[in-house]
Amino acid sequence: MMKSIRQTGLVAIIGCLLASSCKLGRDYVRPDTGLTAAFRGADTLVGTADTANIADIPWYDFFTDSMMIMLIDSAIANNYDMQTALKNIEIANQSLRQSRAAFFPEVEAQLGGTNQQWRSRDFYSSPSSKWYGRDGQAEPPDNLFMYQSQYLSSISISWELDIWGKMRRQNESALAEYLQTFEARKAIQTGLVATIAEGYYNLLMLDAQLEVARRNLRLNDSTLQIVKLQRDAGEVSSLAIQQTESQMLLATSLIPQLEQEIAIQENALMALTGRMPDSVYRSSALMDWRMQDTYDAGVPLQLLANRPDVRAAELALRAANADVGVAQAYRYPTLTIDASGGINAMLPQNWFNIPGALFGGLISGATQPVFSRRRLKTQHEIAKLERDKAEISFQQTVMDAVHEVTNALIMIEKLNEQYAIAERRVATAQLGVKNANLLFKSGEATYLEVITAQSNALTSELDLVSIKQQQLNAKVGLYRALGGGWK
To answer: 0.85 cut: is pTM over it?
Structure first.
């Protein structure tokens, strides 16, 4: 007996040594991402410091509008998607704890008794079995039915030695999946910050367009009054009044349309903050914002650390790589050590008869799959293919991130050019309205020329406001594409 225990202990020690040195599957190595040294289109917009990156700026420092900061802060605390992401983190944490607990042995305790009553004397009888009657006597009376009882309390321990690193790979996979939930929360926050900023800028644009429409309406109304006076004087016909009034109604129709869009945009912002529909206070005007001449976009390599979706994709690749090792380990022998001990007795009064009622055992064994109808090999091959898919997904995510940054840089540059042109167009249109009104009052211009000048001014001012909003959104887009917003 002692020799058997020593042999089992020796096997356990050897198994522990093997467990510390053997691990199936290859360790994770980041695949080639093909990242370039700089972003395309960064020549004119990126600052002088190559590694400086606006993604490192916390969102509450990047955005300076006090109301926008309040909206973002409220959204991070109350948005339902953010709350769901936090619950996903807790769920993944529980799975990670379970994975780490796999290194410990399983322990089970049993307490209870069994009996077989009113059985035939010839049922389950053998030379080694002993039967007891209801009165506990060893030799029951000669009747047809008997019963057997057993009372047991025991503790059993089962421990699987991690020879091939299966549990370590499982823990590695669970850790990667746990970290993925953090990246998912970061990605949600990044998107939330950008969406609120874009919504707020859109609200400022609608306010500015509403002001343009109202100002143009007042101008059209003034023109209409002059045309009516000229009609009364016989200088123009009723057609002039109709056309002038039609132009005024066009500007008038913009007002309820813009007011509708403003209310819907306010409600959308409230929904993002987890609040009921309400108005939104504006602490600034759209035209108060000024665009920077340069932006620190850093280098493409920084996307691997700053972009939550890129990090999540790489963690998914890590998990898939670890799963390959797990699937491979299932094809190798499993070494387990089982130990049990306790007390048992056939009669209740002998249950705690120490040491007579004591029992114990120690078993070690290895299990090797021989033929499983290709199930284990198929699982291993599928795991390798899943790893290949995860690698492709990671490389795709990196490439998409670089494209987003590049597109944002180009958009900012070209919108700056468009804005400069739009400003000159507005100045020209406003001067045209002024000259047309002066000439019209002096009789040197027709009402059609005035209407055309006012229509051009309205369109150019609305376009200028729209381009301004696109500039601000492009700035937000660059911040988001670089991975800003979660810090």
So the answer is: no
